[in-house]
Amino acid sequence: MPIVTVQQSPRTVELKRALVQRITDAFVDAYQIPAETVQVWIQEVPTDSWANAGKLVADA
């Protein structure tokens, strides 16, 4: 059973629905497994809790 973890900034529910469907479809196609065996976990990180190039993303 694959478990996919996505770490990202907050997104809308609609975008997350589309993402998890596409990830699931990719695993079903690549591994020839039932969709029911694919788990996708989304960890949303606020933009003030991560940095890029020495600056908080919230400050960009």
Task: Walk me through the topology.
Layout: E1 3-8, H1 13-31, E2 39-44, E3 51-52, E4 55-56
Parallel strand pairs: 1-2
Antiparallel strand pairs: 3-4
Question: How would you describe this structure in keywords?
Answer:
alpha+beta; elongated; two-stranded parallel ribbon; 60 residues
Individual helix count: 1
- Number of beta strands: 4
Percent helix? 25-40%
Question: Please, what is the average pLDDT?
Answer: 97
- First CA to last CA: what distance? 38 Å
What are the low-pLDDT stretches, counting only 5+ consecutive residues below 50?
Answer: none
Give the overall shape.
elongated
- Major sheet: 2 strands, parallel
Estimated share of beta-strand residues: 25-35%
Derived structural class: alpha+beta
As a whole number of angstroms, the C-alpha radius of gyration is: 15 Å
Strand/helix succession: EHEEE
- Strand line-up of the largest beta sheet: 1-2
What does this structure look like?
- The chain is α+β, with helices and mostly antiparallel strands.
- It contains 1 helix and 4 strands, in the order βαβββ.
Summarize this entry quickly.
It contains one helix and four strands. The protein has 60 residues and is an alpha+beta fold.
